[in-house]
Amino acid sequence: MEIVVLTMKASVIEMFLVLLVTGIHSNKETTKKVKRPKFTVPQINCDVKAGKIINPEFVVKCPAGCQDPRYHVYGTDIYASYSSVCGAAVHSGVLDNSGGKILVRKVAGQSGYKGSYSNGVQSLSLPRWRESFIVSEAKPQKGVTYPSALTYSSSKSPAAKAGETTKAYQKPSVPGTTAQPVTLIRVLRTTTAEATHTTTLSKPSPSAGSSTSSPRPQPMGQRSQELELWSTTVYTSSPSSAGTNPGIQRRDSPGAAFQKPAGAYVSLGETDLWKPGSVLLNAGFVPKEELSTQSSEPVSQGDPSCKIDLSFLIDGSASIGKRRFRIQKQFLADVAQALHIGPAGPLMGVVQYGDNPATHFNLKTHVSSQDLKTAIEKITQRGGLSNVGRAISFVTKNFFSKVNGNRGGAPNVAVVIVDGWPTDKVEEASRLARESGINIFFITIESAVENEKQYVIEPNFANKAVCRTNGFYSLNVQSWFSLHKTVQPLVKRVCDTERLACSKTCFNSADIGFVIDGSSSVGTSNFRTVLQFVANLSKEFEISDTDTRIGAVQYTYEQRLEFGFDDYNTKPDILNAIKRVGYWSGGTSTGAAINYALEQLFKKSKPNKRKLMILITDGRSYDDVRIPAMVAHHKGVITYAIGVAWAAQDELEVIATHPAKDHSFFVDEFDNLYKSVPKIIQNICTEFNSQPRN
């Protein structure tokens, strides 16, 4: 019996062992079968910007050659999503110019991206942007699944072909910020059956601050008035009927709804909530429906007391946000109404700028206030940076032309609206605009506060852009909600044609260098008379750093720079500087003095400024004046030669610009110098008015 029991036990143990071995083998086979597929790293081009990719975190492979300057990068360490992903990777040192794999993580937008030069890439500064990203080595974290195919915000991407897509994710945070749940809704044109999406936004915690309630990140204490209550928002896509596009209806409360065409991003409530990937891109064209909205009603002839040709340059940059853009459009409509547009009065066109400017409509497209208001309502935001200087150059070259409705006899006025500050320089572009006869007005809204001024590319840009810094041509508005209060003051100023003096004239468009003989034959008393003559001439000009500038050189055997073009920029300061010039005494080397003035004064003259040299001498030069005079004429310096007492007439004619009879003057004694001032001024202006304008 015991033998039978032992035999049975052995059989059971043997069977258990067989089952155990079989199970282990089967488990190994199963494990082999469920082996995960190999992760494929998506590849991108050098010009792909982080803002175009919706995924919050991803691994990509960059090609070689992304060090090229045309792939713009904004920021250092933390980059604005308007940057090239691969360019930022090279700048940060994660990649070299041969390319490779990187890990990209989206973070919150910043205020004040600092530019720097690193690893062969020059990154640029940016005042603020709605989204940022960080790049690091491609070392995926455990437990994190990275996409093998990226989701792009462009409808041309592969992901867009699937019809409607909804992406939701928690926006990653950076130190000092609080992340908020963000839901991105993207609606594409489709002919399929209706689809209904319901999106609920939870109310942010009290610690969230205002970073997600504003269309762009702001320093603490700024624009707090825009915070509004969050609510549950329902979006419903309705089936499209024949010949129409599907639309989206928003219901914040019963009775409050609007229609938005499909193919556009949906604004989540009145807070202009930031949405990753929703950066507006320049389309490069203006929709056809914006070109004309002429009504069939009788056209008003307009206000004849305000006959101006007016261009509005409106801010369409992405940082302005949709809500502010709507306020800006309402401001334009209010101005159009107040101006009383008409063929016999003011005419108005609109240019929108971002990365690049584009004309929405020119001076002759709409000839009544009502037509203008209807057209303004249809303007859509272009997005991009805030390149104001580029927009002003565009208007100078393209807008005020006969084909665009410019009437010639009406003053040209350009009103530039700027949110915060520009992302490029405006001084040179504005100077060229003024010299082309354009009166520039600047409206700056919510300008940089003290801790933001370090990010402004061009300090005091508004004062550098306008021709007068007395406040007439520039208006600083503290808040977008106060912009409507500027309508009447602006209309009053642009219609005051007697004060529209920003156009280039013979009095405000030159760099004038006085070359003064301080030789022993002049004497102390006569030298003071010469200085009074210099002051009398200077008084006739409009002096500022953007108008006429004055410099002076005194010479004997040697030369001395008394003051340069950049030293003084007001008329009182110039007159005081002239009064302080001390008499030197010595020989007379006029040729060397001309060469010195060319090098020390006119070499630093601004481009396209008229260069005038006014030389005063009382005798014949000890050195040759012919070659220096020829060099001055060749460099475009218009030379006036003023001779006193013993000055040689033949030498004056050599020094003077041709024709010599208009550029050389002689008086027999120092006390008669003042008599030549009116004639010199008249000749300067006659010559200016006979030249072709820029």
TrEMBL record:
Residues 309-494, 511-684 form the VWFA domain. Its main location: secreted. It is found in: Secreted, Extracellular space, Extracellular matrix. GO terms for biological process: extracellular matrix organization; positive regulation of cell-substrate adhesion; spinal cord development. Residues 147-177, 194-256 are annotated as: Disordered. It comes from the Eukaryota. Binds dermatan sulfate and chondroitin sulfate. Promotes matrix assembly and cell adhesiveness. Plays a role in spinal cord formation by regulating the proliferation and differentiation of neural stem cells. This is Vitrin. It comes from Equus asinus (Donkey).
